[in-house]
Amino acid sequence: QGEKVSPSGAVLLGKLGVRPFEYKMEVQQVFQDACVFSAAVLDISDDVLIGKFLAGVANMAAFSREVGIPTEAGLPHMFGNAFRNVAALIADADFTFKEVEEVKKFLADPDAYAAANPVAAAPAAGGGGGGATAAKEEKKAVVEEEEEADVEFDLFD
């Protein structure tokens, strides 16, 4: 096992009925786009492949949302954004419905939710602080847009 067999030896062993023979090619270098890489670049785990695929799906969903083309990957984002828009519209209005009641309760007293759920109040390192900071971020974005509008500077003057 593991020994190289000469062609004449292979014929002799074939006549004696000694089989199977294994033939394989072992890649040592990879040539692509005028660059040579080690064969280690081909050792990719399933987790890496799944992560790359999911990142591609997320990019496709973001791109399709940006250009306004509805895709199946972008549907959850579309519905989430639509709900946020509806909740923002009726946040100060007297009108309400079942799905927005929880949002209105939160907007009325955010400290009560922070005390009841301390994990959500302190966002983790992976993100996901969520709803409490969303309104603050919107206000900051509006202020930043106003500040940017006040600047009378053109790069090409």
Description:
This protein is mainly α and 157 residues long. It has 7 helices and 2 strands; from the N terminus they run H-E-E-H-H-H-H-H-H. Helix 4 crosses helix 5. It is elongated. The relative contact order is 0.04. Helix content is 57%, strand content 5%.
Task: Pick out its properties.
157 residues, mainly alpha, 7 helices, 2 strands, elongated
One letter per element, helices H and strands E, the order comes to HEEHHHHHH
Percent of residues in helices comes to: 55-70%
Strand segment count: 2
Q: In terms of structural class, how would the helical and strand content be classed?
A: mainly alpha
Strand order of the largest sheet: 1-2
Q: What is the overall pLDDT average?
A: 75
The outline comes out as elongated
Over all CA atoms, what is the radius of gyration? 30 Å
For the sheet with most strands, the description reads: 2 strands, antiparallel
Given the structure, what is the number of helices? 7
What is the distance, rounded to the nearest whole angstrom, between the alpha carbons of the first and last residues?
77 Å
Ranges where pLDDT stays below 50 over 5 or more residues in a row are none
